[in-house]
Amino acid sequence: MENSTGLQTNTPVGEFERQPVPSSQFKDWRKFLGMFAGEHAAGTEFVIGPLFLTAGVSAFDLIVGLLLGNFLAVLTWRYITTPIATAERLTLYFKLEKIAGRKLVTGYNLANGLLFCFLAGAMITVSATAVGIPFDMPMPALTDTTPNSLSWVLVVLGVGTVISIVAAKGYDAVSKFSNIAAPWMVMVFLIAGIVAAKRLGVDSFSDLWAVWGTGSEPFPGQIKFTFWHVLFFAWFCNAAMHLGMSDLSVLRYADKNSVGWTTAAGMYVGHFMAWISACLMFALYLKSPEAAAIFASGGVPPVAPGPLAYEVVGIAGLICVLVAGWTTANPTIYRAGLAFQAIFPKSSTVKVTLVTGGIATIAGLFPAFAMKLLDFVAVYGFILAPIGAVIFFEHYWAEKLGVTKYYASSKGIQFNAAVLLAWLISMAVFYSLSVYQGVFLSFFTLPAWIACGVLYLVFSKIFQKK
To answer: Which residues form a coiled coil (predicted)?
Structure first.
């Protein structure tokens, strides 16, 4: 059965997976501020910050690149994602089903959900490095890809189980937990950065430049990062959420478009302050006798968040790493659960989210997802971002160009070839350029997004005319 808006109403509502969020459920900016701050001041920040140093970045390139790149990300959320979220108040997955058809969107949802599971798995890995310290657990090295001990497996399974149960309780539980944890967690990040800076002898910007001002040669297996690498990475590390429209599923609860500005809490608290704090902690570790011995033996020092934070601020650092990974894994598993729930609409959201958490936990057993986070985040954003262009370009230009909106739903078809062709062609062309020209993948995220949107309108015009 469908109502006057063409939305199905014969499925359980739960989290309003297949109907617009009613006005009684709208939430103001306060509900989002803590969630975005908690989500992006996260356990992964303890990994990404040090990875910038392993890429040999200079202080100027890092600080200015993050300032501008994060600002571009906030603008993207505010002016590209949020207006569409509040206009129709549908999840990404149901909206895409109406455009692309159920068969096509099933494949997309599977890819989307799995990528989010792998990302959540990296966050579970991060939290596990904190839990394992009291048990003297061997930490994963930068080059590790598989579990290195039984204790590692047991700790990851325990952490993943708790995180999955909270995520399964729904959006309100996720938001509540983030709002409680975010202020304390942010304070620990800040204090850790200040303590690390003091121990490095940093009392001014000139001192900061002396720590790693001109950069260095990248570690083995890492590429050299410049200002442009930092800017585009900061802009597009969350491309799946803003350009890719995944945050339609969260921002559909916003009472007004200005809620989009609350993403700045995540960008400048998490992706600026927390990344730089983590850089300083790793810089401090690199000056330790242990790191010097590893370098002397031809090895690569580990990037394990738990030990780094514990060395700087003790038990508070361990708790911060644990909670930070938790607050990011929660909404990520929630998003992945919605993707899988769209594939199995008759299944309860709780059951699907628990299964999703199980997949994320298994992924967390493999340190490669966390240790190669810069590469993984660039790839998953590049894959998922272009499909958001289909939504954006249809929303603003379909009617002006005589293209039928929600074509699959209006024609009762299960597969819209225009979407698949636009997505695959844009990804194939720009991914090939990245590989064969040796160019950092984040540089091609925006061109691939624009190309996908344009190709979708062109193919739709051709196919619909036929």
So the answer is: none
**pLDDT value at position 31?**
82
Count of Cβ atoms closer than 10 Å to residue 79 Cβ: 12
Residue 445 in domain = no
DSSP per-residue codes, 28-78: -HHHHHHHHHHHHSSTTHHHHHHHHHHTT--HHHHHHHHHHHHHHHHHHII
What span, in angstroms and rounded, lies between the C-alpha atoms of 48 and 38? 16
Residue 5's pLDDT is what?
28
The rounded distance, in Å, linking the Cα atoms of 246 and 204 is: 40
Cα–Cα distance for residue pair 203/182, rounded to 1 Å? 27
Q: Counting every residue, how long is the chain?
A: 466
Q: What does each C-alpha distance from 23 to 174, 181, 190, 377, 386 come to in angstroms?
A: 20, 28, 38, 34, 30
The backbone torsions φ and ψ at residue 290, rounded to the nearest 5 degrees and listed phi first, read -60, -45
Q: How many CB atoms lie within 10 A of CB 217?
A: 9
User: Which domain covers residue 84, as residue numbers?
Assistant: 26-375
Specify the CATH number for the domain of residue 256.
Answer: 1.10.4160.10
Percent helix, percent strand, percent coil in the chain, to nearest 5 = 75, 0, 25
Q: Round the average pLDDT of the chain to a whole number and report it.
A: 83
Q: Tell me how many degrees the CA angle 246-252-258 measures, rounded to the nearest 5.
A: 100
Within a domain: residue 408?
Answer: no
Ranges assigned E (strand) in 102-146: none
**Domain count for the chain:** 1
Note the pLDDT of residue 64: 92
The structure tokens 């908690």 sit at 38
pLDDT tens digits along 112-159? 788 888 888 888 888 888 887 777 777 777 777 788 788 888 888 888
Q: What is the Cα–Cα distance from 240 to 248, expressed in whole angstroms? A: 11
- At 426 the pLDDT is 96
Per-residue H/E/C for 283-304? HHHHCCHHHHHHHHCCCCCCCC
Global pTM value = 0.84
Find, among 245, 280, 217, the residue nearest to 387 by Cα: 245
Q: What is the mean pLDDT of residues 214-231?
A: 84
Q: Which of the two residues, 316 and 66, has the higher pLDDT score?
A: 66
At 7, the amino acid letter reads: L
Q: Is residue 225 part of a domain?
A: yes
373-407: buried (b, 16+ CB within 10 Å) or exposed (e) per residue? Answer: bbbbbbbbbbbbbbbbbbbbbbbeebeeeebeebb
> Which residue in this structure is represented by tokens 């190709």?
455
